[in-house]
DNA sequence: AATATGTGCAACCGCGATAAC
DNA sequence: CGTTATCGCGGTTGCACATAT
């Protein structure tokens, strides 16, 4: 259909809101409700378009807005919901009380996307690595089952589980101030440091690989919890 | 200390859906 | 039933601040 933008009228103010404007909008909505957004600015005495007022109220001034950093739990929820719903930010926001679609969208683009990118990179490397190992094993033992190999690979391509690993591992790092604890990249990409897959120096690496193979995410989360609670013991790690 | 670059976030824009006429 | 107005959503932009060089 094509419709003229709501702010086409000249004289409408744009850009950041002043505290005076905020106050006018808050007190008007508290007294009268928002009603017709388009009519609101005129009635409230604001030189803004209705769209701008609505956005300001929904994303910033609403009393039930929860401000501050997202918890790991919230981030995990967003990742899982995004996997299910895609970029339907409003639908995702509906599952997170006090969070707005705009805020979630921002967090996604600034934090979570990067995490998943790292995760994808890890997954890609891991698949490649496991494929190489598999090819080597197959060459040595042609009777190896192809189905078994597929299930092994599927466990590392579950991006939700991977995201959980990333978040949990970051919690491990945040929980300790020891400079001897390797960064997540160092845990996940030991080959870049010249360490082979068999002996990374990462404590519990065998259990970690076991969970990956089984695909038992909950058991893996328990593993991370144990690692988190025993983060202090990681000081025994070799220098990287 | 000055400048360049990166990051986070609030706000804007355009479009589709839908209600109202 | 077609047209118009409004709302709500998702994508994008631009600015302020932080960090690196």
Automatic annotation (TrEMBL):
Gene3D superfamilies: Homeodomain-like. GO terms for molecular function: DNA binding. Residues 139-158 are annotated as: Disordered. Residues 9-61, 62-116 form the HTH myb-type domain. SMART domains: SANT (SM00717). One of its GO terms (cellular component) is nucleus. The keyword Manganese does not apply. PROSITE patterns: HTH_MYB (PS51294), MYB_LIKE (PS50090). Keywords: DNA-binding, Nucleus, Repeat. Residues 9-61, 62-112 form the Myb-like domain. PANTHER family: MYB FAMILY TRANSCRIPTION FACTOR, TRANSCRIPTION FACTOR MYB14. This is Transcription factor MYB15. It comes from Heracleum sosnowskyi.
């Amino acid at each position: 259909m094509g419709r003229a933008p709501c702010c086409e009228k000249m004289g409408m103010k744009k850009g950041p809101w002043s505290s005076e404007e905020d106050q006018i909008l808050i007190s008007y909505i508290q007294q009268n409700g928002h009603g017709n957004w388009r009519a609101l600015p005129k009635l409230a005495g604001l030189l803004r378009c209705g769209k701008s007022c609505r956005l300001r109220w929904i994303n910033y001034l609403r009393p039930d807005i929860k401000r501050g950093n997202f918890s790991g739990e919230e981030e995990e929820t967003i990742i899982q919901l995004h996997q299910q719903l895609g970029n339907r930010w409003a639908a995702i926001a509906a599952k997170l009380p006090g969070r707005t679609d705009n805020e979630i969208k921002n967090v996604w683009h600034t934090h979570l996307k990067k995490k998943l990118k790292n995760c994808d990179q890890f997954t890609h490397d891991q698949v490649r690595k496991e494929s190489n190992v598999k090819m080597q094993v197959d060459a040595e033992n042609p009777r190896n089952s192809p189905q078994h190999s597929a299930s092994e690979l599927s466990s590392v391509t579950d991006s939700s589980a991977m995201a959980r690993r990333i978040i949990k591992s970051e919690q491990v790092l945040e929980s300790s101030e020891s400079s001897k604890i390797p960064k997540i990249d160092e845990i996940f990409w030991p080959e870049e440091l010249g360490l082979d897959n068999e002996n990374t120096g990462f404590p519990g690496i065998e259990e970690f690989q076991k969970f990956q193979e089984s695909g038992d995410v909950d058991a893996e989360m328990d593993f991370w919890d144990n690692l988190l609670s025993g983060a202090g013991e990681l000081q025994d790690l070799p220098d990287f």
